[in-house]
Write a structure and sequence with these properties.
alpha+beta, 14 strands, 3 domains, about 20% helix, Mago nashi protein, four-stranded antiparallel sheet, about 350 residues
Length: about 350
């Protein structure tokens, strides 16, 4: 019906659309393609009015969409775990989320986002998509069986890679077992399955294109831990960080005293197996401005001692002009490390007002 009203003559741009599209389509930024796609389809219909039918090329799978890499690493014999999730969108933006768990309870979550111009990364996204769709030895779609094991061996990480195609409304997902976390997983560590090296390599390339190869996990080498309590002001008003350990398996008196001062009346303390667990309190002591926060990042067994590393989020200048006394804190439970337990100086982390 459309051809009755608009019929392009020979020599027009529309007539040569089938030859032009394969050249220009890969160069169109993925974030822009959905906006101009209706116009491309209309031109395709018009070009079909000529002497020969025209078939428009489709984007490669997930060229419009996102890539997602998930690596879950068991810690402390399966009592804890480290999760890393990296999502890279076709417009170039990416976000990385790391979470530490102990006893299936969240200890800490850290989010990192891309700072580069998304346009600079969109071309690299397209380059990787081309490899994952077409490159021999790397191609996943159509060659590597999707799905995978629900669980892995206690000493292995569960690695999942997904390609999300919003243009087609489809998701392809592969899961394999390997070794290492999101930053250290390697292609040769996954066993005899021929698909494992390709899935792990896809994760490795996604991380390399976005985060880079020099970065490491925020929780690298840490014992797992779970948050007992955290906030901007502890009623206990402790002026320094402390470790609570038991010498005989019973609750230490220092802990009982602290909890009675910290918690509301009638609130029972957390369940702690004092024969093999410890409780850690990270605090900068008194702060005279609202907005300060504390977060434990790593609990590192170092020879015959344990070092605790934490950060203090510090508000920007003049965020709270009125003085306000506060005692921010982060209280966690973790498997017991070698004594003594030392706290490194809090690492300051500046945050914008309202951040």
């Amino acid at each position: 019906m459309l051809c009755r009203f608009v019929k392009p003559e020979r020599g027009t741009l529309i007539r040569f659309l089938p030859e032009l599209l394969p050249r220009i389509l890969p160069r169109i930024p993925p974030g822009l393609l959905p906006r101009i796609l209706p116009g491309i389809l209309l031109l395709g219909l018009l070009s079909a009015c000529g002497d020969e039918p025209t078939v428009l090329p489709s984007p490669r799978f997930a060229q419009i969409g996102e890539l997602r890499a998930d690596v879950e690493v068991p810690l402390a014999g399966g009592e804890g775990r480290l999760e890393g999730t990296l999502v890279w969108q076709s417009d170039g933006r990416w976000v990385l989320v790391e979470r530490m768990y102990y006893r299936d309870q969240l200890g800490e979550e850290v989010v990192r986002r891309s700072r580069r111009n998304p346009g600079e990364l969109s071309g690299e996204y397209t380059s990787l998509i081309t490899q994952l769709n077409e490159a021999p030895g790397l191609r996943l779609t159509g060659e590597v069986e999707q799905g995978g094991p629900a669980t892995c061996a206690p000493n292995q990480a569960r690695v999942t890679f997904a390609m999300v195609d919003t243009f087609r409304g489809q998701v392809a997902r592969w899961t394999r077992c390997a070794r290492g976390n999101l930053f250290s997983v390697t292609p040769g560590s996954g066993g005899s399955d021929l698909g494992t090296p390709r899935v792990v390599t896809a994760v490795q390339l996604t991380r390399s294109f976005t985060i880079g190869d020099a970065e490491r996990s925020i929780f690298e080498g840490s014992l797992p831990f779970a948050t007992v309590d955290r906030g901007a002001d502890s009623p206990a008003r402790e002026v320094r960080s402390r470790a609570f350990l038991s010498s005989d398996g019973s609750p230490p008196s220092a802990w009982v005293d602290f909890w009675n001062r910290h918690a509301q009346p009638g609130v029972s303390g957390p369940s702690v197996d004092w024969s093999r667990e410890m409780v850690l309190l990270a605090t900068p002591g008194r702060r005279m401005e609202a907005g300060h926060a504390v977060g434990i990042r790593r609990i590192l067994p170092v020879g015959v001692a344990t070092q605790v590393q934490a950060v203090e989020s510090v508000p920007g200048d003049f965020c709270a002009p009125a003085a306000l006394e506060r005692y921010p804190y982060h209280l966690v439970i973790a498997p017991r490390g070698p004594a003594p337990v030392d706290f490194a100086d809090l690492l300051p982390q500046r945050i914008p007002c309202g951040g």
